[in-house]
Amino acid sequence: MSIQFDILTLFPGIFSGFLGESLLKDALDAYKIGIRLHNMRDWADDKHNTMDDRPFGGGPGMLLKVDRVVPCVEDVQRLEPEAGRLIMLSPQGKRFDQRTAEGLAKEKRIVIICGRYEGFDERIADILQPEEISVGDYVLNGGEVAAMVIIEAVMRLIPGVLGAEESNRYDSFSTGSRLLDCAQYTRPREYRGINVPDVLVSGNHQDIADWRTENSLQRTREKRPDLLQKNNTEKDNTEKIIPE
Ligand code: SAM
Q1: pTM for this one?
Q2: What are the structural domains, with CATH classification, of the chain?
């Protein structure tokens, strides 16, 4: 299984370090994921490569032009037989979360439009009817970092991308487990007087599972009690922790 991402951006260079490191590089090398960057400026047809213009009615900043962005998106969609899921990044969009990532991980192709400046001419969304997605209630300079957030969250869910040890099944927010992940420790067993809980080195799998379940519940109650309130029963969540 693999997912093809097509990213439309005015600043493809922002992605260069991101694509060349760590798990994402491995996933690209193993063809578990494909990422094509498209410089939207290639669709500008004047000598200044103009992609933006002043808003009608005045106001600060510049907007991405409808007559540049729409042909760009349509051309990119036509690169494959399947147009794919079309996402426009916007602070006004639906808030991105683990559930959205799980849905996107089932797709074959995802096309993401990164905005810049003051955003998009409204007619771009009218014509293309994209899903608008926000990565949070704050405003970034552009959609590139938001696109990286989505790529990272989705790629973790593609089978084979993470090693068995790094299984995402126990991650916080995963489906079937609305609890936060439990506390984890590695060597040394003691550091500055703080010891790893004895149960984790006891070798008793049932005791370890019980401790992890309780620890997850306790952390969720302390840090994110809202997760336990949304039609959640704590019982639903206890299946999450299994011994190694
Ligand atoms: N004027 C716009 C507004 O207030 O809704 C904000 C424009 S922002 C400076 C420029 C671009 O960055 C947006 O078009 C979008 O693509 C991206 N962006 C900024 N914040 C974002 C967020 N929280 N989630 C997703 N994309 C974001």
Answers
A1: 0.92
A2: 3-155 (3.40.1280.10)
